[in-house]
Each structure stands twice: as structure tokens, then as C-alpha cells.
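Q: What does the assembled structure look like for these inputs?
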Amino acid sequence: MMAAAAELESSLELSLGGGAGPGGLPPARSRIFKIIVIGDSNVGKTCLTYRFCAGRFPQRTEATIGVDFRERAVTIDGERIKIQLWDTAGQERFRKSMVQHYYRNVHAVVFVYDMTNLASFQSLPSWIEECKQHLLANDIPRILVGNKCDLRNAIQVPTDLAQKFADTHSMPLFETSAKSPNDNDHVEAIFMTLAHKLKSHKPLMLSQPPGSGEMHLKPEPKPAMTCWC
Amino acid sequence: MAVRGRRAGHRDYDSKKKRKEAEIQQALSSDPIDVATLRRMAISEGGLLTDEIRRKVWPKLLNVNTDDLPLPPGKELREDNKDYQQVLLDVRRSLRRFPPGMPDEQREGLQEDLIDIILHVLKRNPQLHYYQGYHDIVVTFLLVVGNRLATALVEKLSTHHLRDFMDPTMDNTKHILNYLMPIIDQVNPEVHDFMQSAEVGTIFALSWLITWFGHVLSDMRQVVRLYDFFLACHPLMPIYFAAVIVLHREQEVLDCECDMASVHHLLSQIPQDLPYETLISQAGDLFVQFPPSELAREARQHAERMAASTFKDFELASAQQRPDMVLRQRFWDRLRGEERTKSVLTKPRTNRLVKLAVMGLTVALGAAALAVVKSALEWAPKFELQIFP
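A:
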């Protein structure tokens, strides 16, 4: 019973522990990318975020009540960046009054549906609408992730349908499996692509006061696998 | 020597336990049943001690007649039930809540029972709405008292203590969460101010509140101990207990980086070795020192426009004339009256940094505990009103 909780916790400890600088110096303050992960119940939001932050598929997960938080530090072009993933409850009643606090200062949104559950794909428009209401800025990067692509015999959402939808909403589409990451797009690659995009996109929240003036960022080459237009 | 000391301690515990068991038995066999004593027993050190006692006492705390239990719910409930899919998803994933050594077959049987109980209660009470986490409460009752009794207890609980969480929206739940920061502020303004500047919000305590900590505690013994306490108390007690946990971790909180993510993460990971008996006692004391009526105004300021809509909901709901609604309406009417007086007085905040005084809830249950028990009657099933005239 405790294993699951301890396991989930370790993903953060891992990343926080990794943040310490060499020689006992306090770690250099790094930029933080805050990403919110939304979608219907049981599409695999917790598993995807856990896979990225802890590097493996959690043994068992339970319904997320409210909002969970996971984090991982990565290095992109020599810069240390903290990626914060906010994992939200899927049940509709939690969205309305509970989750909006966590949309604040979000840098990117990940919409998740379950490729083996058509209904979870069909509720995407309402998630997108909701997201629009919470986020004032329109230019926040958003991506669409179809999860559970390893369950080949149960697929209900064909790729071309999903791609069409993604195109209509100007989002890149990824099909993946948190459980079996060798299938299609690697979870790691998806979040890293997003991080690259964020890094090159615009200045983000700094956890140190700006003013050093040295924040000139090289624009990232677009990853071949996605289309950001 | 150490061994002898331990033995003596053990003997002492055993004799205390025996005494308490006898007292509970006596309360159960008196005519009419001495529910006030049962409440005190459920709150005081160790709670109701064993599941065997819980099976007898929990129904009394909820005023459920055990001679006339509903038949076990049938499978036909699963057809066109709007909540069935969500319940199914949540129950299937709730493996962690069953004892680790339980054979799969037995666990799967219980999971089916769990689904049936939930759907049964929802079907009979169309005003109630399922929420993720409700299953964490129901499973506790199922494991302790079994299928049929659990159905009756959960139904009563859902129309009383859990009623606010089961509204069509979570606005009332949010309103209850708004009590958390004012309670913390009363005891330790530094922690309060730190949390405010971190903008941590209160969602870290959401699962604590709506599952009565069933979702976050690993040890079933701790869970049922808390259920003893909450069943005997005012429905807002879980939010006082949440505050006490935060206050207990004061140093960790203040040592944390002052941002939403760090504080949210720290607080949402509940330590598994909390001193429960002490915390229960402190929560009771806090309740007595800062009763909900006193905190209501501050909670409302915290919530801004929450209050009006909440009250409207109450008015609408009470129009249905359900008995629990009438009780609640009375409570809110009185509360509003008190507030009107208070806002005129605009009392300065003289009571910042009040030390938590342990009034001995754990040992003797004096006047303070009586107040906790008494206030529970505001919401409790009405049969007991004659006990405290």
C-alpha cells in the first residue's frame, strides 16, 4: 500500500536531489516551465507524467483527487531547466471550481486522450474550451497526446481522425504509450520537444530576478517529428 | 529494566483498554443507548479500539437501525446509471485500499460490492452526486462493517456529513476548504502568511477532506481511528484536523521554498508516522477555541463571492424539505445572525498567535470535548436532541 505513494514521491525527490550544484554550492537557480496536463478520467495523465519524471511506468495508480505535482530537472543546450508537470483530476466536477487556481502562470498545456476510448477523444473540444477560458494568453503552446497506443487491438481513435482534429486546432499530435515507451513517440521525446519549444518560444518565468541581460536564447531548430504551425 | 518498563507500559495499556471496552459495552446495553458516552469513547484516546466494537457503535453514532437493514443491492443498478462508468474506473483502480495479503478473488468480490453500494446510494438519493474519492470512504465502511451494514451507514453519512461534497458542483467543498487558512492563521500567523505568499491554495487538502484521509493514509488502523473521531464530531472536524497536520509540520513548511509547487508538494505528501492521538486532541481543542461560526466570516473573506451563492444553494435545497436540509438551514440562519452582529463590532484580531492548549481531550474529556460532542448535534441525526436539552 505504501509502495505506490512512496514510488510516486520518489520521482520528485529524484529530481530535487539532482538539482544540487557541484562542490556543495547552492544550485544555480533555474528556469521553470510549468505544464498542465488535462483530459478525461483514466486516459493516463498520471502515468504519462510519472513516466517522464521517474523514468518508468508506475505499478498502480489511483484516481487523482484535485491536483498532483511532479517535477524533473533537464539540461537543454547547457541550461538547467525545471519541468513542472501538474497532473489534474479527470472528473468534470473538479475542473470547475477546483483546478482553475493551477492554470495560473502555465507555460504549456498537454491535452490527453485514450486511443482506446472514443469518448475521451470526443470530450477534447470541451477541454480546449475550458482551457481557453482559464488562459488569457492565446499563444500558449498546446499539444495533443493520444495515450495507450500499445493496445493495438483496442484502438478506437484512428490516427487520421486525431490528426485532422489536431490540425484544426493547430496542435501537434503525438501517439504514445506511457506503459510501453518504445511504441511510437517516446514520452520522453514528447515532453522534451515541448521543453525545447518553450525554451525557444519566449522568456518564461524566472526563479531569479531578471536583469543579468544575458538571456539571449538561440532559437531551437524545429524537431522533425512535429509541426508547430 | 527496559523490558520491565515496556511490560508495565503494556499492562497499563491493556488495563486501560479493558476499562474502555467495559464502558463502551455498558453504554451499548443501557436503555436507551447512551450515545453521548459512545461519542466520547470514539473521540478519546484509541477511539473505538476494535472493528468488532466499531460494527456495534458506528451505527449508533449515525442513528442507523441495524434490525432493519436494506437488502444487498442488486446488479440491475448498473444499467443506465450516469455514474456507473466513473465509479467503475475509480473502484477498479483502488487496489491500494484493500489489505495487502488479500487473495485477488476476494478483493475482486469486494470491489463489486463496493460498486453496488455506491450505485445503490446514488440511485436512492438522486440529489447526491458521485465524486472521485467517495469510493475511498465507502471502501472503509465495507471493510469494517461488511456489505449490508455499510450500505445503510454510507447512505446516512452521505445525506449528512458528506452532503456538501455531493452537491452538483464542488462550490460548497471549496467553501469548506476556505476554513483551512483562517484556522491556521489563528494558531500560527507566520505559517499562514508564508502559505499565502507562496499562493499554495488549499487543494493539497482536498483529498484529505473529501475522503476523510482514506485516500492518503496507508495504514488502515489509522484510517478507522480517524473515522471514529469524525463520525462522533461536527462535519467540519476534518478541516480542523487538516489544519492541525499543517501546523504540526510548521518547521518543514517554513523551511520550504516559498513557491506554490514546493509547498503544495510538501503538504500533499502526508507523513505516515503522525502522532494521531495528539493531533486528534489538538483538533478538538482548536474546534472549541475557534468554532466554525467564529471562522465563518474570515472564511468568507477568503472566498470572496462564495458566500452568497452558497447560501442560495442552501435555500434551494431546503425547499426540498429533506430533514437534513432543515437542520442545516437552521444552522446557517443562526450563523448568519451571529455574523451580522460581529461585523458591526469589527473585532480587532487580538487572538493572533494563540498557543494550542491541550485541554485533555485524550485523558478525561472535560468540558471542551463535551462542546465538540454537542456541536456535532447540529448536524447529527436528530434523535439525540433530547440528550442535551
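Chain B has two domains: 75-159, 171-387.
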